[in-house]
Design a protein that fits this description.
Oligomer: single chain
CATH superfamily of the domain at 66-173: Cytochrome c-like domain
Order of helices and strands: HHHHEEHH
Strand order of the largest sheet: 1-2
CATH topology of the domain at 66-173: Cytochrome Bc1 Complex, Chain D, domain 2
Helix content: 55-70%
CATH class of the domain at 66-173: Mainly Alpha
CATH architecture of the domain at 66-173: Orthogonal Bundle
Bound molecules: heme C
Structural class: mainly alpha
Radius of gyration: 38 Å
Strand content: 5-15%
Distance between the termini: 122 Å
Length: about 180
């Protein structure tokens, strides 16, 4: 009797175990899936945040650049319209008559005087790169923004470099 029941029970038991195992496998794979998707979601979030941050950082950076870049672009137009005929396209001027802007020590050393000259005109003796000039640059009637723009253009062209961008407020503060 026992011999007969035991194999039967064994079979039952095995089946029961197998069902249990199957259930466990389902549960296990579900837990694994849940865990994996959670961590990948977390990673995605981190990645999204870091790209968001880097976009913000580069946005600030490019905004600063484009402000100056935009001013220089506008200044280039002012230069071709108002300054080029005397100071020439290469900014070298005409020695003895029209002083150079390219590599001009006057422009780099006398920032506010240069703004003043472009805003209100310049007459009287000046020495630029060791050469004496005593000529007339009449005022051209530019507004403060045009003065700032053309200053940014001449201070960033032909190898000239500028530490600080000329702003409209800076031009506004230069008074007669
Ligand atoms: C009609 C010719 C003429 C025009 C146009 C002219 N300039 Fe001048 N510029 C001169 C002369 C001449 C001087 C020197 C004046 C003097 O002898 O005191 C001068 C001086 C300067 C100086 C200071 C000296 C130097 O070389 O660094 C700057 C800066 C300058 N000009 C920028 C400009 C800008 C910017 C424009 C256009 C918005 C302009 N000029 C238009 C003739 C001109």
């Amino acid at each position: 009797m026992v011999i007969f029941i035991l194999p039967w029970k064994e079979k039952e038991l095995k089946e029961l175990l197998l069902i249990n195992m199957k259930n466990h496998i389902h549960l296990l794979s579900f837990t694994l899936f849940f865990f994996v998707s959670c961590t990948s979601l977390e990673k995605k979030k981190v990645a999204e945040n870091s790209t968001k941050n880097s976009i913000v950082i580069s946005d600030n950076h490019s905004k600063e650049k484009t402000e100056l870049q935009k001013s220089i672009m506008r200044g280039k137009n002012v230069y071709s319209g108002f300054c080029m005929q005397c100071h020439l396209p290469d900014g070298k001027g005409v020695p003895g008559n029209f002083p150079p802007l390219a590599g001009s020590d006057w422009l780099t050393d006398k920032r506010s005087e240069s703004i003043y000259a472009v805003k209100f005109g310049q007459t009287g003796e000046i020495i630029v790169n060791g050469v004496k000039y005593n000529n007339v640059m009449a005022p051209m009637g530019l507004n403060d923004e045009e003065v700032a723009d053309v200053m940014n253009y001449i201070m960033n062209s032909w190898g000239n470099t500028q530490d600080q961008m000329v702003t409209v407020d800076e031009v506004k503060d230069v008074k007669k």
